[in-house]
Design a protein that fits this description.
By secondary structure, the protein is of the alpha+beta class. The chain has 3 domains: 73 residues; 84 residues, YbbR-like domain (RNA Polymerase Alpha Subunit, Chain A, domain 2, Beta Complex); 88 residues, RNA Polymerase Alpha Subunit, Chain A, domain 2, CATH 2.170.120. 16% of the residues lie in helices and 51% in strands. The strands form 8 sheets. It has a 4-stranded mixed sheet with strand order 4-1-3-6.
Length: 306
């Protein structure tokens, strides 16, 4: 019984191989897609209706093996629209003979083009208004522990052209990226982010490269005196303590460039405060990203000047 089953399976395999070989050699018709890319269209030219198709379907005749290759490696055709655009508005018309000629040039030599769907490419066009606008990043970045951004995210391109009717683009001065949330960032990163295009507008390009500079941070500490602001005339103000420990957060690469002279520590007198004042910090060094003092509140004693 097992031998009979084995013999049957062997003959079935041989029959399948023979059928497949015959199918690969036999000539037949099939339909395959052709992916279309368009060049030569001025940026200010808009397309009406449904625009131009990105895929044209063709019927082609050839041996099965050749036809099968068109599915493994899809066909791509580039069409230059410059010869078909004249004036400020009108109709783009890529005639059937030009379309068939372009497709025939990308087919294998043994393949015969039978039919294209559609037979020709037709689309109305018109001229839109255009203007330059600035580009800006829109997003939220959450850093990993012990890391910080150096500066702010920068865009590789600072501006772009946008196109559309005047009523849609007149009020646009800045074009933002789509809002993104980036979490747990711990390394310098480059990414491409799509632009958030308002309705009825187009842009010179639909995305922009964004660079985010990241580095590990550390803390640097100083012991600094507190400056008193606003003490009333004829009085002496004594603080307890009069020095505080200030910690600043700074990127490792700029640690040596932060000095005590970059930091100002002060308390402002207010008659409403009876015996305690808050400690405030100002810093001018751009490499300091955060600073805090300990203690953050000090006691004071106000006495008449002798």
């Amino acid at each position: 019984m097992k031998r009979e089953i084995g013999t049957f399976l062997l003959f079935l395999l041989l029959a399948t191989l023979l059928w497949y070989g015959h199918a690969m050699q036999s000539v037949r018709n099939t339909r395959v897609p052709v992916h279309i890319q368009y060049t030569g269209k001025p940026g200010a030219i808009g397309l009406g209706g449904d625009g131009l198709p990105s895929i044209v379907e063709i019927e082609v005749r050839d041996a099965g093996a050749r036809l099968n290759s068109y599915y493994k490696e899809p066909l791509h055709l580039t069409i230059d629209l410059r010869p078909y655009i004249h004036g400020d508005k009108g109709t783009i018309q890529v005639p059937s003979d030009a379309l068939r000629r372009g497709i025939s040039n990308i087919l294998q030599g043994t393949s015969q083009l039978i039919e294209t769907t559609p037979e020709e490419l037709v689309c109305p066009f018109y001229t839109e208004q255009e203007k330059w606008v600035a580009l800006a990043f829109d997003g939220e970045i959450k850093m990993a522990n012990e890391y910080q951004m150096v500066g702010v995210p920068t865009l590789r391109t600072s501006k772009t052209r946008i196109y559309g009717q005047d009523k849609y683009i007149a009020s646009i001065d800045t074009l933002y990226t789509k809002h993104v949330l980036i979490e747990d960032l711990s390394d310098t990163t480059d990414m491409r982010i799509a632009l958030a295009l308002p309705p009825n507008t187009r842009a010179q390009f639909d995305s922009v490269d964004v660079h985010i500079d990241v580095e590990r941070f550390t803390e640097k500490k100083f012991t600094l005196p507190i400056e008193v602001i606003g003490a009333p005339e004829g009085y002496v103000m004594r603080l307890f303590p009069h020095d505080v420990e200030v910690s600043v957060r700074v990127g490792i690469s700029h640690f040596s460039q932060v000095q005590a002279s970059d930091i100002r520590v002060f308390s402002t007198y207010s008659p409403e405060r009876k015996d305690k004042l808050d400690v405030a910090i100002q810093y001018t060094n751009p490499y300091i990203t955060y600073a805090w003092a300990y203690p953050g509140v000090v006691e004071f004693l106000l006495t008449e000047q002798q």
